[in-house]
Amino acid sequence: MIKAINLTKKFKDFTAVDSINLLVKPGEIYGFLGPNGAGKTTTIRMLTGTLKPTSGEVLIMDKSYKDYELEIKRNIGVVPDEPKMYENLKGSEFIEFIISVYKLDSKEVYNRFEEICEAFNIDYINNFIGDYSHGMKQKLMVASVLMRKPKVIFLDEPTVGLDAKATRILKEILHKYKEDGCCIFFTTHILEIAEKMCDRIGIIDHGRIIAEGTLEELRALSKTGSTSLEDIFLELTGGEEIMDIIKDL
Amino acid sequence: MKDLMLLLKFSYKNKARPKRNRKGQIVRPSVASILLGYFLVPVIFIVAIVPTMIFSLKSVDLNIPLSQLGMNFNCTLLDLLLAPAFLMSSALFILQFAPLIITSLYDNDMITLLLSMPIKRSTIFFSASIDSFIMSGMAGSAVFSMIILYLVTEGANIFFAILSAIGFLLFLFSISLLVGLIMSFFVGKTSAKRLSQLMYFIVIILIVLVPQILPQKMSSNPEDILEMFGNSIKIFMSPIWPHTQFMQSSRGNVFSLIFIYVISVLVFYLIYKFSSNLDFSTSRKKSKVNKIEKFKTSRQPLLKKEIKLLFRNSQLIFMMLYPLIFPIFFSFAGINNLSYLAMLFMIIAANYTSLITSMMLAEEIKIWPVPKLFPYSTKTMVNSKVLVSSSIFSIEFLAISLVYFFIFGFNIFELILIIPTIILLYYSSLIGARYFLSDPHRDVSQTNKVFKGKEILIIESITMGYAVAIFGLLLFYDIMVKEGLMWIFKEMGMFLTSLIILGTVTALVLIIIFSIRKEIKKIDRYIEQME
After folding, report:
1. Please, what is the Cα angle at B448 between B382 and B8, to 5 degrees?
2. pLDDT reported for residue A47
3. Is the CB of A70 less than 8 angstroms away from the CB of B189?
4. Pairing of strands A2-11, A14-24
């Protein structure tokens, strides 16, 4: 469902993403991990069509952005790293805008949205978005994507700003959608979530995918025999020097 | 005090936009130049308005006690004349300043960080208040102008003049802070922002409109004026108003002077005590209806959204309404020349179309890349803004024309004005979009300042230049048709004159049509590069 072929993005002399290849299948949750500045958001922006790759190609449901941009966008859902929305619209108006612009069946979406609102405790829908806190915006953004139940879902740090209950609900909903055949691609810094949720994990560093596979396959890559994802991640991304740094402090 | 100065210093440093100099180095403007940017318009306003007003008021002796005119009141004719203006400007100052405090205090990302630092909450509150005062601009300068105007015309004692002026400003300042504090319990930051913007534009409109209306009132029978003043004196000169106390104190009334300072100090103390315990969170009152009963979907969601956002931005509403000021004046004055009106309307509307388009685009850039995720192309998004902004002014002009045709009769020449109007408005809107998109990553944190000075100058020159050229020529032609040929055209005869003027206008319109195609191509190129 999500396919990236030799995907590269250069910003002048700096290569943010260096010839990466990805394949995520329907009914799969793919966790995309990496240290800050590794190229996660750049990759997700290319996969969602908001950033043009310098070279390489992205195929979503076997279709390329070059020829089917709008069709792809109608079928994907994206929760960006920052929940930015029109501040002078009310939450309800933003949702109505989404339903109209994606040409959704309002009756079908209504029940799903109601359930999501109840689960996430979204009871501020008629207030202006400009008055929301970060967490409130994040919940509304997540709800606006999940209510559509798109075939492919991208989430960039979706748990930032969410409380423990909302995070748990999000995880459960994503699992349910996965069972229903949705393809889910998400980035997170909370390795525990990735460990528990993802079928496969890709680790990016300096714009290159340095490891990819199931948790078992990643464990096999560890030279020190680490079993937790955190240890494997730090070993692969050079984070083992942190103890020396802490000692020096 | 040291903390307060430090907060203010960094607040203004933070407001500065770094610029690149000719060598390509990034230069950050100094605090003084940033402050000058805020004070420039109010200072120009004061310098331009006050001397004229003083001159006109000084030409007649208004320092006549009302008792001499047979009215049993302890004030002068000058007090009575200026009291309504004092009341209006004071009220608008408070109403603009108070919501500004809420926006700068509660809509400020830095507050959470500042609260974690060893700085008193009251210091944070007062720094935000001073910040807001400097941003209050026109409302502040209107009050300031009134004070200077009154003190100079009255010929007040310098000692009492300075003390009473400072006291009056402190009084208004303290009341505004109190109102701001109280408002923060009831008003959300979005509403506060809108209220503050709305008040700003009401101040500007009143400043422009009041002098047009007042002389008509003043020209009535003096006895009627005195009677009218007699009836209103109890309202405008009531001792509860700060300006009444200010007027009294400037004339040497020590009791009024002490009263102003005591009340101000008490209010400040109250605010100081209260703000020390503030948590700096606005009322997050939940709407009573927090469920959507039924989704109201639309066939034109993009258009619906644009119009909603447009009419929720006070500044954009002001810009949409401002060109209508001339038709209102004209109808007051009974002028029926639509081509003259068209020229004035277009000079403003053409420029505002560009600015509104750019400001609407800035709303999208603020949430970028989210709009890029929606299932419509960036070109559709840009086009919707270009069309909405030009359509609004086109509809306004059509409505004005219809009203004029209805009142003053149908005229085929004036009907033709609609064609260049629509073409120029559409072109101006495209110009705004093109300049904005030439640098889509520009600073859009202040939506009303999306363009650099040079860009504004170019846009104004293009849009206003075309408006003056086309509609100025048409006005000139209209005058000659009605009143006979003039200037070099006297010798040419009507046919040749028509050929030259209407031919030039047609050529200009054709140039614009040709330029529209070029602008669309440029916009398409910029959209291609937008990420």
Report:
1. 140
2. 94
3. no
4. antiparallel
The pLDDT assigned to B428 comes to: 94
**What is each CA distance from B217 to B27, B224, B335, B401, in whole angstroms?**
53, 10, 20, 29
Residue spans of the domains in chain A: they are 2-248
Query: Residues A88, B190: contact at Cβ < 8 Å?
Result: yes
What would the pLDDT profile of B379-429 be if each residue is shown by its tens digit? Answer: 999 999 999 999 999 999 998 888 888 877 767 777 888 899 999 999 999
Beta strands A2-11 and A55-60 are: antiparallel
d(CA B149, CA B168): 14
Whole-number mean pLDDT of chain B? Answer: 80
**HSE-up (13 A, CA, CB side) for residue A244:** 4
The mean pLDDT value of chain A amounts to: 89
Rounded CA separation B256/B340 (Å): 52
Per-domain boundaries in chain B: 46-275, 301-529
Dist. CA B197–CA B190, nearest whole Å: 11
User: Do the chains contact at B312 and A102, CB–CB below 8 Å?
Assistant: no
- Helix (H) or strand (E) segment spanning residue A11: strand A2-11
pLDDT tens profile B79-104: 878 888 888 888 878 877 777 777 77
Identify the contact set of chain B against chain A, taking CB-CB distances under 8 A: 188-191, 193, 282, 284-287, 289-292, 294-299, 301-302, 304-305, 308-309, 312-313, 363, 366-370, 372-377, 531
Strand order in the sheet with A14-24: A14-24, A2-11, A55-60, A63-64
DSSP assignments along B292-322, one per residue? -SS----SSHHHHHHHHHHTT-HHHHHHHHG
Asked if A99 lies within 8 A of B373 by C-beta distance, the reply is no
**What would the CATH number be for the domain defined by A2-248?**
3.40.50.300
Point out the residues of chain B with pLDDT beneath 50.
Answer: 215
How far CA B227 is from CA of B222, B232, B247, in Å, comes to 9, 9, 22
